[in-house]
Fold this sequence. Notes:
The protein is of the alpha+beta class. It has helices at about 5-10, 15-65, 70-75, 80-90, 115-130; strands at about 95-105, 105-115, 130-140, 150-155.
Amino acid sequence: MTMINLREAFEDRDVRGVFIICACALAVWGTVFAFAAAVSSLNRQVSDEISSSDEVLDYAMRYRALPRTGTKDAAAFEEPLGIVSETIDVLKLRDRTQRLQSSSSGVSIQLERMFGDELLDFLVSLENGGLDVRAAEIRALPASDIRLLSVSLTVEPAK
Length: 159
């Protein structure tokens, strides 16, 4: 029985060629395996994102299906600008109203220095008046201890 000397074996071109082919095949196999693992991970992330967005859409659909409170029939005969103006007066927000204008896309409102609960009361009052918020931009204003909000809304009659 003779021992194989590795140094002499690598000096042979055939053995060296087989070794290089095996090393290349192993590298290709490792690359394919790593790529498949990355694709699998990405697929899991995408499916998680899709299920998360489906959940958000489900909540939105449930919210839209809730019955509206208030007198929608009486509000249907009023102009949206009148409803918004009346809501601003009732909630005493006239001094913080920066802009109130009507256009073909709805009524645009900009309110400054609002507290969070005032904004919630305003939105609920608009909804009870038969108006839906079509677009909103809410920014937190720099303040000392209390967070104030700057709000820009576009509202339109509920459908």
